[in-house]
Design goal:
The structure holds two protein chains of two kinds. By secondary structure, chain A is mostly helical. Chain A contains eleven helices and no strands. The two termini of chain A are 33 Å apart. The mean pLDDT of chain A is 89. Helix content of chain B is 36%, strand content 25%. Chain B has a six-stranded mixed β-sheet, with helices on both faces. The model of chain B has no long low-confidence stretch (mean pLDDT 90). Classes of the chains: A mainly alpha, B alpha/beta. At the A-B interface, helix 8 and helix 9 of A face helix 3 of B.
Chain lengths: 269, 260
């Protein structure tokens, strides 16, 4: 075999990366320090803004007394069930919608109308229909997460490479074989994008639904803390949601890259 | 023995702009013997690709018959395999699985398909590349995978639709030589469509010249250059004579038909 020389990343690019990291983290640190100072010197009413140190303390207290775990597990359950249902329904439905012209024609306008409706505004209805318990939250998550999936997979079916289909037909492929060997692999990157978008929407759905009406969950915890002027706890709850969101997005991005490995090196910006 | 027989083939299509039915191929008859390499040349847009696609079963014909081994052709089938101008490999499949694709579509088990394909992987010198993704290969290599995919199906008739047209000039010449060598080794019945007259003469036993649209057979020129051939025959008097003979027919038709 021939020798292949792999060039190391140029020093310039390396240096730029380090610099960006430094700048990025220093802005965050500055923000936290400034926030803390505003609190310590009582420049703004401490009741309103809390402080990073207080948030950390509140977080620790919530971990210790078990309230965080209890509420987090409720929210997680609502999210997982709603998100899972959205995938189970949205993935096949989006594909069917994109694959069959007749179904696209019939359901397209209906889907578009539903998609344009703010799902959170339907929350009072969901409560009437499904009660104040976990079910109404699951439905909100499902309704929030399902549309990015449907839309992405429908689009995926329209981006199928016509030349590949032509070749498959020349080899006598049936429609089902074309679907399995071409349409399905084509849909995977779109599924991954859909999953990421859906995760963000779903998370938002959980929190909003719990704030709206409920007796447990992170959203409820935030809402309760807010109405009792416990700003530390509000921030502590928001922090948990943010960290969850980032972790979820990062993992799904990684998973997406794994499914995309046949595309080769994609420049990361 | 006649391998592929085309009789009075007429292919029409609906021109969407005018709403009229246009004739692309007009009463073409051809008999291609087993092991024969036949090339169809003609002006661009003359309908030769349409003709090839209808042999492949991808384009419906309005009149006439296509027979492979005396069996009537009606739609795509495993007795024919096409190599298109674009390699059109499945980008998410490694080279090995691309080569077995045609066999897999015919319902063969993967292990069996791999075994069957391995002969052609060696023949087309793709061994060592089975685990590459298509994007890691050059255009020429991709086209070789395309060719291997078709040959792996072991078709009765191999159809080549301007197989090297998308390649650069140097790669094209190299691929022509490889195809020449390959065909002399495997002895397949081949029908090729091309714009390159030198390519046609180099590879073929017969060159069929199509008229400007609608296509009919203008001339059927045998290429009596003995095999095995080497690419340097392109410098010979005989080769140039055949090329100019073909060119004269095409040019004459273009002038009459105003085809350019």
């Amino acid at each position: 075999m021939r020798h292949v020389t792999v060039f190391p990343k140029s020093n310039v690019a390396q240096r730029e990366k380090v610099l960006n990291l430094l700048l990025g983290s220093s802005v965050i640190v500055l923000f936290l320090v400034g926030w803390e100072l505003l609190f310590q010197f009582k420049i703004v009413n401490p009741l309103f803004i809390s402080a990073p140190s207080r948030v950390v303390l509140a977080e620790i207290a919530m971990i210790n007394d078990g309230t965080l775990l209890k509420n987090l597990s409720v929210s997680a359950k609502e999210f997982v069930l709603g998100y899972g249902a959205a995938i189970l329904i949205g993935f096949p439905f989006g594909i069917i919608l994109g694959w069959f012209k007749l179904i696209r024609g019939s359901f397209g306008p209906f889907i578009a109308a539903l998609q344009a409706t703010p799902r959170v505004a339907l929350m009072p209805l969901f409560i009437i229909w499904f009660g104040l318990g976990i079910t109404s939250k699951i439905v909100v998550v499902l309704m929030s997460a399902i549309f990015p999936l449907i839309v992405n997979l429908r689009v995926a079916m329209t981006t199928i490479d016509a030349d590949l289909v032509h070749v498959a037909r020349a080899y006598g492929a049936s429609r089902w074989q074309i679907f399995r060997s071409i349409a399905f692999p084509t849909s995977l990157p779109f599924l991954m994008t859909g999953l990421r978008l859906a995760a963000g929407r779903g998370l938002l759905g959980v929190i909003v639904a719990e704030v709206f009406g409920g007796a447990e969950g992170i959203g409820y915890m935030i809402q309760y803390a807010g109405s009792t002027f416990q700003t530390d706890k509000v921030f502590a709850g928001v922090l948990v949601v943010a960290v969850t969101g980032i972790t979820l997005d990062f993992s799904l991005d990684r998973l997406g890259r794994y499914f995309d490995r046949w595309r080769g090196e994609v420049p990361v910006h | 023995m006649v391998k592929l027989s085309v009789k009075d083939l007429v292919i029409g299509y609906l021109d969407k702009q005018s709403g009229h039915t246009m004739v692309a191929v007009d009463k073409v008859s051809l008999d291609i013997r087993e092991g024969e390499f036949v090339t169809i040349v003609g002006l661009s847009g003359c309908g030769k690709s349409t003709f090839l696609n209808s042999i492949a079963g991808l384009v419906k014909h309005q009149h006439g018959q296509i027979r492979v081994n005396d069996r009537l052709v009606n739609g795509p089938g495993t007795d024919r395999a096409v190599v298109f101008q674009k390699a059109s490999l499945l980008p998410w499949r490694k080279v090995g699985r691309n080569i077995t694709y045609g066999l897999e579509l015919s319902g063969m088990k993967l292990s069996e398909a791999r075994e069957k394909a391995s002969y052609y992987v060696n023949l087309i010198r793709l061994n060592g590349f089975e685990n590459h993704y298509p994007h890691q290969l050059s255009g020429g290599m991709q086209q070789r995978v395309n060719l291997a995919r078709a040959l792996a199906c072991d078709p009765e008739v191999l159809l080549l639709d301007e197989p090297f047209a998308a390649l650069d000039a140097i790669t094209r010449e190299l691929m022509q030589n490889e195809l020449l060598e390959l065909c002399e080794k495997v002895g397949k019945t081949v029908v090729m469509v091309t714009h390159q007259i030198d390519e046609a003469v180099l590879l073929s036993d017969r060159v069929i010249i199509f008229s400007a649209r609608p296509a009919y057979v203008l001339d059927d020129i045998p290429i009596p250059i003995p095999r095995p051939r080497k690419s340097h025959i392109k410098d010979s008097e005989e080769f140039r004579g055949l090329m100019s003979k073909i060119w004269t027919v095409i040019e004459g038709n273009a002038n009459i038909g105003g085809g350019i």
